[in-house]
C-alpha cells in the first residue's frame, strides 16, 4: 500500500476561498442544468401531462432498475446557442434488468421533440459511446423529426443517425426503440433500423408521411392509425415486435427485452475483492483548485480523494515531476493515472507520459488523464532540447494507445497540452470537466497579447503609427471573448465534453464510466504506434 499523505488544511483561508469560488460555480451550474430539466417550460410540460404522458426523465426512471444511478451525459448540450439547453433530448447510461445500457429519450415538450443540430450531435455522441463500449442502446422515441427551420444543418449529416443504428446491430450491439408518440418521416427509421421495437396503443405514430402529406402526394384519404398506429404495425406491417397498452407497459416490455439479451460484459472487471473508499473526504475536493488557475496545486490531493483507499503507486516521481504518473484502483477497477502538477509539460514529462502509456497498454489497464496544463514549454532552450519531438512522442502514444482513456478537466487545459493529455479529439471514452476548468488554444491574456504583437509588427512594417488606445480596447475585448469561450458550460454546450460534474462526484462518475468501459474487451496496443521521433 502506498497511501497518499495530505497537505490540505480544510481550516485554512486558502481552502475556504477555493471552496467558496467552486460553490459559486456549482450554483451557476445548477441553474443551467435546471433549464435542461425544465424542458419546454411549464406550458408545454402541463399540456404533455394533461395528455397522460410521462416526461423523458420519468420514463427513464421507470425503465431503470430501482435505486440504481443514471449517468446523464451532455446535459448542457446547446448551452450558449440559439437552441434550448439540453437540446431536447436526455441521454445517459443506466442499468436495465442488470445490464448497463445507453439510453436516449426525446423531450417532446421541447419544440415537439424535434432534432436540432445539437440534438443530432448529442445522439451521435451516444452512438459512439455505445459502439466503443459495447453498450446496448435503448431509444425512447417521441419526436417531430427534424427541426425544420434548421434543416440545412441536420438533413445531410443526420443520415448518420440511421446508419449508426444498423452498424451497432452489425457489431452485435443490440438496439431497441420504444415509441411513445410521433416518429414520422425520417424519424420512422429510428424504429425502422432498431433490432427491437415496442409500440403503444393509440400513442405510437410511425409513418413516412402523415395524412396531409399522403393526400398531397397521392390523393389518398387516410388517418394516423391506419398509416402508422401501434395496432396496425403490430398486426399488419410487422414493424412493431411488441404491442403495449400504455407507457408503463411499454417500459416494462423494454426491461424484459433487455433481460432476454442475456448480455455479458467482456472486460476483465474489477481486480479487488473489497473496495475501500478514499481515506480523505471527497467533500474536500471543493477546496483544492484555486479560482486563479495560475496558482499551482498538487494533483495528488485530488487523486487521494478519488482512488480506492487513497492508495496510489507513483512511478518515476523524480523524473519529469510536472507530470504525476502512477497506478491505482477506482471502485476496484485498475487505472493508470497521468496528472499535471505544475502546469507546464517539458520534454521529460512528455517522455515519461509516453513510457507510462506504453506500460498501461502492455497491462491492458485503462488510463485516467487529470488535466491542469498550460501546454508544452516554449523558449529557445526547450526548442533546442527537442520539445516538439517529445510532445509529438506523447501525442503519438496517446493517439495509438488502445486501452480506454478517461479524461477529467480539473483546471487548465490549454494548447497542445490538451491534446497530449487526451483531449476531445483523441477520443477518450469519456471526458468530463469540473466547473473550475478552462480550455482554449492558450490563456486569454496570452492570446490577446499575441494578437496585439502581431498587429503592432504589421503596422510597423507598413510604416504606420500604432493606435495604442484602439489596441488596449481590442485586447480587453479579445480577452473577454476568449475567457468566455474557454469556460466549461460553453464547451459543454458544444459537446466538447460529456458533462460538467461536481468535483465531489468524480469518483462515482469515474466508477460508472469504468464499469461501462468494461462492457467491451480491454486490449491494449502491443505495437502499432507511429514512428517515435527520437
Ligand atoms: N420543427 C420545428 N418546430 C417544430 C417541429 C419541427 N419538426 N415540430 C413541432 N415544432 C414546434 C411547433 O411549431 C410548436 O411550436 P409553438 O408552440 O411555438 O407554436 C411546438 O414545436 C410544439 O408543437 P405542437 O404541434 O404544438 O406539439 P404537439 O405535441 O401537439 O405535436 C408533433 C407534436 C411532432 C406531432 C407536431 O408538432 C408535428 O407534426 N410536427 C411536424 C412533424 C413533421 O412532419 N416533421 C418533419 C420531420 S422530417
From TrEMBL:
PROSITE patterns: COA_CT_CTER, COA_CT_NTER. Residues 22-273 form the CoA carboxyltransferase N-terminal domain. Residues 277-524 form the CoA carboxyltransferase C-terminal domain. Signal peptide: none annotated. One of its GO terms (molecular function) is ligase activity. Gene3D superfamilies: 2-enoyl-CoA Hydratase, Chain A, domain 1. This is Acyl-CoA carboxylase subunit beta. It comes from Streptacidiphilus fuscans.
Amino acid at each position: 500500500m502506498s497511501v497518499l499523505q495530505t497537505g490540505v488544511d480544510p481550516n485554512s483561508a486558502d481552502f475556504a476561498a477555493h471552496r467558496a469560488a467552486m460553490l459559486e460555480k456549482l450554483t451557476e451550474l445548477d441553474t443551467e442544468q435546471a433549464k435542461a430539466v425544465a424542458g419546454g417550460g411549464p406550458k408545454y410540460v402541463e399540456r404533455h401531462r394533461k395528455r397522460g404522458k410521462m416526461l423523458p426523465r420519468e420514463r427513464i426512471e421507470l425503465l431503470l432498475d430501482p435505486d440504481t444511478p443514471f449517468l446523464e451525459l451532455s446535459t448542457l448540450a446547446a448551452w450558449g446557442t440559439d437552441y434550448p439547453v439540453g437540446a431536447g433530448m436526455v441521454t445517459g447510461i443506466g442499468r436495465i434488468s442488470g445490464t448497463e445500457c445507453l439510453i436516449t429519450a426525446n423531450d417532446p415538450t421541447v419544440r415537439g421533440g424535434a432534432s436540432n443540430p445539437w440534438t443530432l450531435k448529442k445522439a451521435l455522441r451516444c452512438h459512439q459511446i455505445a459502439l466503443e463500449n459495447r453498450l446496448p442502446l435503448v431509444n425512447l422515441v417521441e419526436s417531430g423529426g427534424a427541426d425544420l427551420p434548421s434543416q440545412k444543418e441536420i438533413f445531410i449529416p443526420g443520415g448518420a443517425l440511421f446508419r449508426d443504428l444498423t452498424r451497432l446491430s452489425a457489431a452485435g450491439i443490440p438496439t431497441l426503440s420504444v415509441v411513445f408518440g410521433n416518429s414520422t418521416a425520417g424519424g420512422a427509421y429510428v424504429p425502422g433500423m432498431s433490432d427491437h421495437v415496442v409500440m403503444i396503443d393509440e400513442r405510437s405514430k410511425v409513418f413516412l408521411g402523415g395524412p396531409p402529406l399522403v393526400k398531397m402526394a397521392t390523393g389518398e384519404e387516410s388517418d394516423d392509425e391506419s398509416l402508422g398506429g401501434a395496432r396496425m404495425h403490430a398486426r399488419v406491417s410487422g414493424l412493431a415486435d411488441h404491442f403495449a397498452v400504455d407507457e408503463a407497459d411499454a417500459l416494462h416490455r423494454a426491461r424484459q427485452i433487455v433481460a432476454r439479451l442475456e448480455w455479458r460484459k467482456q472486460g476483465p472487471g474489477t481486480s479487488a475483492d473489497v473496495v475501500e473508499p478514499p481515506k480523505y473526504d471527497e467533500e474536500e475536493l471543493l477546496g483544492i483548485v484555486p479560482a486563479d488557475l495560475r496558482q499551482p496545486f498538487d494533483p495528488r490531493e485530488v487523486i487521494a480523494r478519488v482512488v480506492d483507499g487513497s492508495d496510489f503507486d507513483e512511478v518515476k516521481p523524480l523524473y519529469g515531476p510536472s507530470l504525476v504518473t502512477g497506478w491505482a484502483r477506482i471502485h476496484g477497477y485498475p487505472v493508470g493515472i497521468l496528472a499535471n502538477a505544475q502546469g507546464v509539460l517539458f520534454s521529460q514529462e512528455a517522455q515519461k507520459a509516453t513510457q507510462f502509456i506504453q506500460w498501461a497498454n502492455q497491462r491492458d489497464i485503462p488510463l485516467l488523464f487529470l488535466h491542469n496544463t498550460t501546454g508544452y514549454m516554449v523558449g529557445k532552450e526547450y526548442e533546442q532540447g527537442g520539445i516538439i519531438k517529445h510532445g509529438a512522442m506523447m501525442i503519438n502514444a496517446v493517439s495509438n494507445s488502445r486501452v480506454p482513456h478517461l479524461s477529467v478537466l480539473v483546471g487548465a487545459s490549454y494548447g497542445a497540452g490538451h491534446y497530449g493529455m487526451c483531449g476531445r479529439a483523441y477520443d477518450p471514452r469519456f471526458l468530463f470537466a469540473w466547473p473550475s476548468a478552462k480550455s482554449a488554444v492558450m490563456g486569454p491574456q496570452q492570446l490577446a497579447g499575441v494578437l496585439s504583437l502581431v498587429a503592432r509588427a504589421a503596422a510597423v512594417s507598413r510604416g504606420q503609427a500604432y493606435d495604442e488606445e484602439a489596441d488596449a480596447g481590442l485586447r480587453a475585448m479579445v480577452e473577454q471573448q476568449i475567457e468566455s469561450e474557454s469556460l466549461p458550460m460553453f464547451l459543454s454546450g458544444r459537446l466538447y465534453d460529456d458533462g460538467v460534474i461536481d468535483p465531489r462526484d468524480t469518483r462515482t462518475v469515474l466508477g460508472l464510466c469504468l464499469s461501462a468501459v468494461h462492457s467491451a474487451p480491454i486490449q491494449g496496443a502491443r505495437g502499432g504506434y507511429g514512428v517515435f521521433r527520437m
